[in-house]
Amino acid sequence: MSLLPPIIEFLKDKSVLILGFGREGKSTYNYIRRYLPEKKLTVADGKEQNTDDENVAVVCGENYLDCLDGFDVVIKSPGISFAEVEIPENTFVTCQTDLFLKYAPCKKVGVTGTKGKTTTSTLIYKMLRAGNVDCVLMGNMGLPVLDYIDEMTGDKTAVIELSSHQLEFTHSSPQVAVITNIYEEHLEHYKGGMSGYVNAKLNIVRYQGKDDTFIYNGSQGVDRFINPEEIKSRKIAVSEEDKLPFTLDNPRLKGRHNRHDVLYALAAARLFNVSDQHAAEAAADFEGIEHRMEPVGEYRGISFYNDCIATVPRAVMCSVEALSPQTLIIGGLDRGIDYTDFAADLENSGVEVIIGTKTTGHKIIDMMLSAGTKKQLVKAENLEEAVKTAYEKTQKGRVCVLSPAASSYNEYKNFEEKGRRFKELVRKYGGEK
Asked: Disulfide: which of 32, 113, 261, 325 matches 119 by Cβ 3.0-4.6 Å?
């Protein structure tokens, strides 16, 4: 009987390509090396890499994706798009998420959705902890799952935030799967656009068995995305209109969308026999998520909020409902999302001033101008100009929110970098040294 972990047993006699050598790729390499120090491996990445390992072949440069043929297993990092890639017939493409879900002996709760997955997964983790369930929070928030797998014994529970990128090449599902919602996002990453995106998300439930549980958005409905007959597990619909068994007055959980996230978390926590009282205590202690309706502070009499994680229109409108801003800053990378309905929603909202940055912010402003808007609209060249304009246009005692409705990759490395830059600029022009 082998003493090797199941993942290593699976990989030991196969030719392996680690595709992408960022944080997750390095985590995969380190995990394999822990048990197979001399196994021949190949690493491929668009950027130049050096592992200082004589048993590693390195493929780098703009054509690095041409090297897939000839490997039994490709362990892909989630950020790499296969929209234009043809997978060789005898090559099995997997990822850390897939390997963890299949081989880790612990219980697993997976959470995905276009929006709300970070809040929901964090709330589940806190509720389980409050109910004395031994659990670990990991996944999409930058914590590679293989970094934890050796400590995840059968008496522990993994709460895993899962992006569509992590789920795309996943062939296993967690015992408890949560889908908060599905809207247009990351369409350029997938073959088939929206259909490819949805198909990736649904891997979280597609491989569940009859003893597993699927928690989904009862207000949006699952039927539009998947044939219910494909789902073998028990289904729990969680709707916005459902009643909470406790009062929710945490200011970091304002709005119907956050209340919905609490309901998802409660449904999952109850499966682990967590009491409603413990769930209520966890919700009350929730400290919020950076970049999600995050209070920056009051400067020159104006309350600023950083909602840079809101990269789709639906998330922006949730913040508008919850925070009632006078001024809204939008804009980012154009990924082909149809903003027609969003422009109409903004026109019908209580927002008075809309500041748009390149590229989508300018596009949406042009749409609203063409429709004869009554709003104050300003095109800003960049985020710094947008913040300066916000100070000029927003009245004392009112609210300004950065909520882009687009990704940040046209000017920033990610939404985190953009959100932190926004906070710097608010403080700089608000007089804080």
From this structure: 261
Per-residue pLDDT band at 117 (split at 50, 70, 90): very high
| Residue 222 clears pLDDT 80, i.e. is over it | no
Phi, psi of 258 (to 5 degrees): -70, -35
| Residue reference for tokens 């930058």 | 142
Please choose, from the candidates 414, 425, 433, the residue with its C-alpha nearest in 3D space to the C-alpha of residue 22.
414
CB 351 within 8 A of CB 321: no
Instruction: From the options 3.20.20.140, 3.40.50.720, 3.40.50.1220, 3.20.20.70, give the CATH code of 6-94.
Output: 3.40.50.720
Please name the amino acid found at residue 304: F
Q: What is the pTM of this model?
A: 0.90
Domain 98-285 falls under CATH 3.30.1490.190 = no
- CATH 3.40.50.720 location in the chain: 6-94
Tell me the C-alpha to C-alpha distance, in Å, between residue 285 and each of 15, 127, 137, 310. Answer: 48, 10, 17, 23
Calpha distance 295→311 (Å, rounded):
18
- Residue position matching structure tokens 């060789």: 88
